[in-house]
Amino acid sequence: MPEQADSNARAVPDTSPRQVVYASASEEDTEGFAAAVARLLPAGSLVALTGELGSGKTCFVRGLARGLGIKPERVHSPSFTLINEYPGGRLPLYHVDLYRLDRGDMDTLGLSEYLDGDGLCAVEWFERLVENPPHLAVHFTFVAESERRLVAVARGRRYDEILPALAGELRRLGSGIGKD
User: How confident is the model at residue 179 (pLDDT cuts 50, 70, 90)?
Assistant: First the structure.
């Protein structure tokens, strides 16, 4: 049965051909958007998550888990553990949180094993990463108490191809999302 996004979700006008903009009215909307992303990404993909504390980054990772066939309730913020691994889906999901790390500490973490790995790697607070490998960037902005604006931007050729497919998938699901 296809997943449906909340009927309050809507497209937001955008002028860039390299991004998909999504207005999320609820956690369910955010998870549904992320599940659509996860179904399209191949092994070795990197998703960069940026935005204020509490803006929905971990909620988005729960949606990635759902889209990969991993139980979303297993997903928790790795703020203190730094990296959580979730096997058992179409791809393993690696959830990295760089919030508590200084740039100098990242070399000792062994991040390249995850960033260049065989699964889907989602990195919260990606802007703290010293390197800037190709990735799908998703930025979260507060609009209202339960509303968020999510902007997915391709940062590399492999991700350029994902955006039209994502916009098409979201239209097919009837979520009112589009790529302008």
Answer: very low
According to the model, what pLDDT value does residue 152 have?
Answer: 95
What residue spans define the domains of the chain?
A: 20-172
In eight-state DSSP terms, residue 36 is H
Could you read off the pLDDT of 124-150 as tens digits, one per residue?
A: 989 888 778 899 999 999 998 889 999
The answer to whether the beta carbons of residues 97 and 125 sit under 8 Å apart is: yes
Which residue, 115, 134, 143, is CA-closest to 30?
143
* Separation CA 3–CA 63 (nearest Å): 11
Interior angle at CA 72, CA 87 and CA 102, nearest 5 = 70
- With tokens 């998550």, the residue in question is 49
Nearest alpha-carbon partner for 91 in 58, 111, 66, 110: 66
pLDDT-derived band at 103 (thresholds 50, 70, 90) equals: low
pTM: 0.84
What are the helix (H) ranges across 19-172? Answer: 27-40, 57-68, 106-109, 112-115, 157-160, 162-172
Q: Cα–Cα distances in Å, from 99 out to 36, 61, 84, 168, 169?
A: 26, 15, 14, 33, 32
For the domain bounded by 20-172, which CATH number is listed?
A: 3.40.50.300
CA distance 108 to 43: 24
